[in-house]
Design goal:
alpha/beta, two-stranded antiparallel sheet, single chain, 190 residues
Length: 190
């Protein structure tokens, strides 16, 4: 069965964005890009909320073709164009987009059916609102978190309106020279 993994940058106090959605506090560098790129290259499916999908769709399809594109932009653009995209959206219902499936209704049934299909893990990129819905339905199988060495004090939390305790098992930890710490967890379903 395929696993649904939430991939998120997070502040030390649990926020994924500032109060107005700002993410300028997130530390990324070549070391992190290379590490993330290696894992993403083994993934064939990405899940986004509508807002994140529109942001990604406006940039990544052609980012690698731009003059002066970075190694990261070239590699991620190639991956993005090959990956199947799942989008959680009620407003895009019925939209027909290449390599994209819109999920508007029956979220739990649709995601569980996709998990039963062929392919690698499914990465949820950012998308805090979509992640909150997936958490509430107990659909996330793991968390791939990049803890940034900052306390925001307020903003958009990763874990909002969690109804039941979620037990996690720590798989790996990695410290980057920037001070960011990668934490990989799997949900303990027992």
């Amino acid at each position: 069965m395929r696993k649904l993994i939430s991939f998120m940058h997070i502040s030390l106090d649990g926020f994924v964005a500032g109060p107005n959605g700002e993410m300028n506090w997130i530390k990324v560098d070549e070391e992190i890009f290379d590490h993330v790129g290696e894992r993403i290259s083994k993934t064939d499916t990405a899940l986004y909320g509508r807002v994140t999908y529109e942001m990604m769709q406006n940039y990544w399809p052609n980012a690698g073709d731009e003059p002066g594109a970075s190694k990261h932009d070239v590699e991620h653009s190639k991956w993005y164009n090959k990956a199947h995209k799942l989008v959680l959206s009620k407003t895009m219902k019925g939209a027909s987009l290449a390599d994209t499936t819109i999920i508007s209704d029956n979220l739990s049934n649709e995601i569980n059916e996709i998990k039963q299909g062929e392919g690698s893990e499914i990465l949820v990129f950012g998308s805090p609102t979509a992640t909150h819905s997936l958490i509430q339905l107990n659909l996330i199988d793991g968390y791939w978190l990049f803890v940034n060495p900052i306390i925001l004090g307020r903003g958009i939390p990763l874990f909002a309106d969690v109804k039941d305790k979620i037990k996690l098992n720590l798989l790996t930890i990695r410290q980057f020279t920037s001070g960011v710490t990668e934490l990989n967890y799997t949900a303990d379903r027992q």
